[in-house]
Amino acid sequence: MAVSGRQTGRPTLEEVAARAGVGRGTVSRVINGSPRVSDRAKEAVGQAIAELGYVPNRAARALAGARTDAIALVIPETESRLFAEPYFLDIIRGVSAELADADMQLLLTLIRSSKERQRFEQYLSAQRVDGVLLVSVHGDDPLPDLARELGVPAVLNGRRSAGERVAYVDSDNVGAGRSAVDHLTGRGCRRVATITGPLDMYVARCRLDGYRQGVEAAGLPADDRLVAAADFTEEGGRRAMRELLDRCPDVDGVFAASDVMAAGARGVLREAGRRVPDDVALIGVDDSAVARLMDPPLTSVRQPIEEMGRRMARALLREITGADPEPCRVVLPTELVVRDSA
Q1: Closest CA to 263 of 145, 129, 86, 90
Q2: Which of 90-104, 131-145, 161-175 is most confident?
Q3: CA distance linking residue 300 with residue 283, whole number of Å
């Protein structure tokens, strides 16, 4: 015989939100003790939880003021890309250094498929971390907005657009492209090409904007044949350089939007019998170990990658503790480091 009125399952966040007359994100912020919730909303959510007669364990922990003492560092890349790309390792080094004395467990999370993305979204919804650091975000990445909706503090490495609402630490990517092209044209290059990153990433579009500003400032004609899109990988740099040589064999300067892509471009130029820098001057971005070890050593735009990792972790900790009511928005300067390739 059934017992009248007895619940057979846990109420969900959606059910609590419906009872309280607020959004799901507001419920999550209330149960996680976020300071960015009105007293009225807190009262409505608390009453709805009481009326439903059950508080999920994770919410009970949050209401009691407990935390997971864990932060997720999310990188949507494969292991091979993670360890081949110095940029990611420098970010990890900076984050780890900043968290060393914070009594926080750092959880490195690689997202390589839609299934893994769904699994992490469920993990995030279960409030199993106190905050999230997101690296290499594309324009359509839903994770920053999901974290915001759930009231989970999040800081991005870079931005998805000029109007980014989630906290971020970025570098001056327009300035990086502009300074590279200014240097190339200043040394006499007149057919300056660029190898971009994926154009669904704001960082790649900004570096392309900087390239175009530099070309215009030098009084050179804009030529879309001198622009080749790639993917921040060495092989992508190789493919793009082949395209550029096929379309514009008289190219005499190349701005690659990363050192790794510049390394790929350097290999293709060598195969084509083009000397660097005598025939083609070459510049990358990051000032990584790749730049210093290339032959010839690569001129590169330095961005303070490790410092970005530190600043991201510092901003996230302040957001978790409620010390910063407004999202962090930081853009760090870049600097051209001249070596033999240009």
Answers
A1: 86
A2: 161-175
A3: 5
The answer to whether residue 326 scores a pLDDT higher than 90 is no
Give me the residue label for tokens 């392309």: 208
Write the pLDDT tens digit of every residue in 102-111: 878 899 988 8
Token pair listed for 264 = 């790929």
Which two tokens mark 22?
Answer: 């607020």
Which tens digit of pLDDT belongs to each residue from 11-45?
676 788 888 888 877 777 776 666 667 888 888 88
Cα dihedral 303, 203, 168, 96 sign? negative
Closest CA to 104 of 71, 152, 133, 146: 71
Asked whether the beta carbons of 184 and 342 are under 8 A apart, the reply is yes
> CA–CA separation, 169 vs 179, rounded Å?
21
Q: Hey, what are 165's tokens?
A: 């609402």
Query: For residues 310 and 98, is the Cβ–Cβ distance under 8 A?
Result: yes
Domains of the chain from N-terminus onward: 13-63 (1.10.260.40), 70-171+305-332 (3.40.50.2300), 173-302 (3.40.50.2300)
**What is the C-alpha end-to-end distance of the chain, expressed in Å?**
84
Give the three-state DSSP class for 115: helix
Cis peptide before 327 (omega within 30 of 0): no
Rg (CA), the chain: 24
Instruction: Give the strand pairing for 299-302 and 335-337.
Output: antiparallel
Sheet hosting strand 281-286, strand order edge to edge: 227-229, 192-196, 253-256, 281-286, 299-302, 335-337
